[in-house]
Design goal:
single chain; 382 residues; alpha/beta; Rossmann fold; 2 domains; eight-stranded mixed sheet; six-stranded parallel sheet; 14 helices; 14 strands; 18% strand; elongated
């Protein structure tokens, strides 16, 4: 492998084939910076995953026994792995994603190697102040050790500034692969086949959400709103993409509201196939209680689907009410139903939202632009 001008050590609690905000950010940024060499250290999680993989400027080191519990031991195992790597390589800085198990290893490394610069990226999507004491304490230790912090939203930037006043804090959002999530390259024939596969008819109006089935995403509220919309638009359909512990409960709510044929639980869909599902939708909705940023919203915007969200966490960074989307009140199914009807029936509003949202994505949430911002940090230092 060719020697690179910069060598960066990355800690993350998960990496490919797992898909999440951090995993997507690491992949999209590193492959767009071929002149920088990355060593990624992460828990192994499964024996099906190789301990070491290499691809051009990226080497992935998975540590642990291949158990689901590997992440719990990663602050120690990841820290120990770095010593063998540092004997071979001279790292310019080390970069941890999320103040969790992965960053725990980075925190230990900073304790023993204080002269190496520690860059932390905060991507958490929970309501951070409502988590239990030990989670908040562990996170505060990590945030307090960082020399520089990037956050994906203003909400998270304010949070880390309240913990670490000395660190430089820069807002760099997650992005969208615009080429994959644009309307180009998706043939109408393939869309017709997908609709047939799902069981959609031409007159169906389609709501879509891409969400973990957990309480913070308030999908019970969304299903209740769909029942109210259905009284005015009987042909409405809700596609729920994702999985999680509330699947059974949400199905029971759908049955109780006589929505068995109107709410379709599609399970996990691969990220590469997601644009096809978004394109057949008329509106994307996730009425969350908390969001660090919300990648799924950005992907819907890039695809040309108007969005409805709540004014929480990082969502106001990209959702300007009646400009790039519509706000609904948290936990208010009546308001959500009203906003859904509005975006489905007001053609002029739809067109304005779609055009403004696409322009925003191109100007601010393009992975190419975001990669250049990290390149500047990696190149010119902290």
């Amino acid at each position: 492998m060719t020697e690179k001008s910069k060598r960066i050590l990355i800690f993350t609690t998960a990496y490919k084939p797992f898909v999440g905000g951090s995993e997507m950010a690491i992949e999209n940024i590193s492959r767009r910076l071929p002149s920088i060499f990355f060593d990624i250290v992460t828990p192994r999680h499964s024996r099906k995953l190789e301990k070491f993989t290499e691809n051009e400027n990226i080497r992935v080191h998975r540590v642990g026994f291949g158990w689901s519990s590997d992440k719990y031991f990663f602050p120690i195992s990841g820290f120990l792995k770095t010593f063998s790597l540092m004997k071979k390589n001279d790292y310019y800085l080390f970069h941890a994603y999320q103040a969790s198990y992965g960053a725990g290893a980075a925190w230990l490394l900073k304790v023993f190697k204080p002269k190496i610069k520690f860059l932390l990226t905060i991507q958490e999507g929970e309501d951070l102040n409502k988590q239990n004491f030990w989670v908040r304490f562990f996170r505060s230790l990590i945030v307090g050790k960082a020399d520089m912090i990037t956050s994906i939203s203003n909400y998270l930037a304010d949070y880390v500034k309240s913990i670490n006043e000395k660190a430089m804090v820069v807002i760099i959002p997650n992005g969208v692969d615009i080429e994959n999530f644009s309307l180009k390259g998706i043939e109408d024939g393939r869309q017709a086949l997908l609709k047939e596969k799902i069981g959609l008819k031409e007159d169906n109006r389609v709501i879509i959400t891409v969400s973990r089935l957990v309480s913070k995403n308030c999908l019970d509220n969304l299903i209740t709103a769909v029942a109210k919309v259905k009284s005015q638009l009987p042909e409405i359909k809700l596609l729920i993409i994702g999985n999680g512990p509330l699947l059974k409960k949400l199905k029971l709510i759908s049955e109780r509201l006589n929505l068995n044929n109107s709410v379709l639980f599609l399970g996990e869909i691969s990220h590469e196939n997601l644009p096809e599902y978004l394109k057949i939708a008329d509106v994307f909705i996730r009425p969350s209680k908390s969001e660090g940023l919300g990648n799924s919203f950005l992907e819907a915007m890039a695809t040309g689907v108007p969005i409805i969200g709540t004014p929480v966490g990082g969502i106001p960074d990209f959702l300007a009410d009646r400009q790039t989307g519509l706000f609904c009140r948290v936990g208010d199914s009546d308001d959500l139903a009203e906003k859904t009807m509005e975006v489905l029936t007001d053609k002029n509003l739809r067109i304005k939202i779609i055009n403004n949202a696409r322009l925003l994505i191109e100007e601010k949430y393009n992975w190419e632009i975001i990669a250049r911002k990290f390149e500047s940090i990696y190149t010119y230092g902290i």
